[in-house]
Amino acid sequence: MKTFQTMSSLYAPTLKEDPADADLASHRLLLRAGMIRKTAAGLYSYLPLAWRSLEKIEDIIRDEMDTHGAQEVLLPILTPAELWEESGRYDAYGPELMRLSDRHDRDFVLGPTHEETMTDLVRGELRSYKQLPVNLYQIQQKYRDELRPRFGLMRGREFIMKDGYSFDADAEGMQRSFDTMYDAYSGVCDRCGIKALPVAADSGQIGGSTSIEFMALAEAGEAALVYCPDCGYAADEEAATVVISVEDGPETHDHELECVETPGVHTIAELAGLFDVPEAACRKAVALVDGEGRPVVCIVPGDHELNEVKASHAFGGYHLMSDEELESFGLFKGCIGPVGLPEGVSCVCDVSLRGSLSWLVGANRPESHYLGARPGRDFEPDAWEDLASAKASDACPVCGKPLAAARGIEMGQIFQLGDKYSRSMGATFLDRDGKERYFQMGCYGIGVTRTLAAVVEQCHDDSGIVWPVSVAPFEVEVVALDTADDLVWPAAQQVADQLVEAGVQVLLDDRKERPGVKFNDADLLGLPYQVILGKKAVAKGMCEVKDRATGERREVAIDEVVVEVG
Ligand code: ATP
Ligand code: MG
Ligand code: MG
Ligand code: MG
């Protein structure tokens, strides 16, 4: 990577004013610092400064992946539709998938992720258990036709991702690969200067955390999180969903939820035992029918017997009640009526459910439990916003202490896939006994461009970006204030040379601009250190070193700058 750059020849068109339509700090500052430009909705061009930071993030990811046993490859972005048809995702993935065809009318997709291509790559050639495990990753552009591309690099339609895939012989191996990637991801977050929280994520499976998201903590984050300050439990809001019980009444939903028949299970304790999850992770929904035959669902935590009594009381023979009436039964108002719910479903929540809306379900089948239902995906999210804000009052499912709420940016996510893709795509190997078996797979994604945005989101102030050294475009900006001065200009060049020689990456502001302009730009670009050379100081053989993060300025002898910031 180039270690020296003059500002006069750098392509970084900075903006004095805040751009319109850029509410998020990272979006605004990356635009203002001349690092990114929008080409079209969700499509960004990375200018030299951003590209340097992105390459540094990529190198950190590479290093963590390589030292944790993975190997880098590069697969085509253009993906034959047949592979996606094999896995069943060609239809299932929905409108986010970018589809196109070639001149022969053959269908393709622009890869939003590469489970299919990667599985296809190894099937037939990775044949023996002796060759396992194998972990392959790539860093490339991904394409998703996001409904609302926004927030600059946060949610693009084209973005850079590192995606990796592990192939193991059995579940234990898969767990080991997963744990290793967990370490690698923690390393990436630390080294990029990101304060991240690994949280349990919804994986649509029962119990255990088979998927973890790495959340960069930020007010502006799109993801709502809960965490337990006491025992360290953390989950994204969606993952709080574990088990949902629904009884009686007609089937009404058309959502793809896993429904498990559980004859004879009637209490929360039995549910928890059956699915091997904490009791606090279980909720029961008692589905009833109102006077006009419309299903009414009452969701109540706690003891089943009691809930049934409450439900029938509350509905007085299964009729919907007014808010006042509901309140008189201690039920939460505002959740009644068909607002925001799938057609034909009404719902009432128990008071004690405030904030526990993840357990909501709108479907009825006797003696069954739904797994992994969540608002937002299975229901209109708006209806539940009030409740969502009360989430923090929930009890921790592990230790029962109160949970706290936070917001985060999903930087990365790791999954245990099991044989989902190896089975649908027929990817097998021969085990020790010569028996054909499906690979146990894991997949691991981290957004490179989103990580850049997350860094800026966490590291900025009113004047601009405050780069952590590890991902800063350059490490030091040498600010020559009087470039026409006989002493200042040679001194600035000398300092720059010395720093470069010491292995420091230097940006030299050699422009014929007023000091105010240079100071503002230096703070906006936010390199970790500024070495400022003005007439007065240079005459004494001195310059000023400013630490961008603390704002601290110190007079330093020109000869000693390297010692100070090297
Ligand atoms: P989100 O929940 O924000 O839509 P996702 O769960 O769909 O993200 P994954 O499929 O887990 O994303 O992809 C792995 C990583 O790729 C994410 O953790 C994120 O860092 C990044 N990523 C996903 N979608 C985008 C996007 N539209 N723009 C930029 N980065 C993205
Ligand atoms: Mg997404
Ligand atoms: Mg996500
Ligand atoms: Mg994800």
Concise summary:
Belongs to the class-II aminoacyl-tRNA synthetase family. ProS type 1 subfamily. By secondary structure, the protein is α+β, with helices and mostly antiparallel strands.
Secondary structure layout plus pairing:
Elements: E1 4-6, H1 25-32, E2 36-40, E3 43-46, H2 48-67, E4 71-72, E5 78-80, H3 81-87, H4 89-92, E6 98-101, E7 107-110, H5 115-122, E8 134-143, E9 158-168, H6 171-191, E10 196-200, E11 211-217, E12 223-227, E13 234-236, E14 243-247, E15 258-261, H7 268-275, E16 282-289, E17 295-300, H8 304-315, H9 323-328, E18 331-332, E19 346-350, E20 368-371, H10 385-389, E21 404-418, H11 420-424, E22 428-430, E23 436-438, E24 440-447, H12 448-458, E25 460-461, E26 464-465, E27 476-480, H13 488-501, E28 506-509, H14 515-525, E29 529-533, H15 535-539, E30 542-547, E31 553-557, H16 561-565
Parallel strand pairs: 1-28, 4-8, 14-16, 17-19, 27-28, 27-29
Antiparallel strand pairs: 2-3, 5-7, 6-7, 8-9, 9-24, 10-11, 11-21, 12-13, 12-21, 14-20, 15-20, 16-17, 18-19, 21-24, 22-23, 25-26, 29-30, 30-31
Bound molecules: adenosine-5'-triphosphate and magnesium ion (MG) (3 copies).
Structural shape: elongated
Helix count equals 16
Mean pLDDT: 80
Name the assembly state: single chain
Q: Give the structural class.
A: alpha+beta
Terminus-to-terminus distance: 17 Å
Q: Total number of β-strand segments?
A: 31
Question: Ranges with pLDDT <50 over ≥5 residues?
Answer: 204-208, 241-255, 284-323, 325-366, 373-393
Any idea what the radius of gyration is? 28 Å
Q: How much of the polypeptide forms β-strand, as a percent range?
A: 25-35%
Largest sheet: 9 strands, mixed
- Small molecules bound: adenosine-5'-triphosphate, magnesium ion
Percent of residues in helices: 25-40%
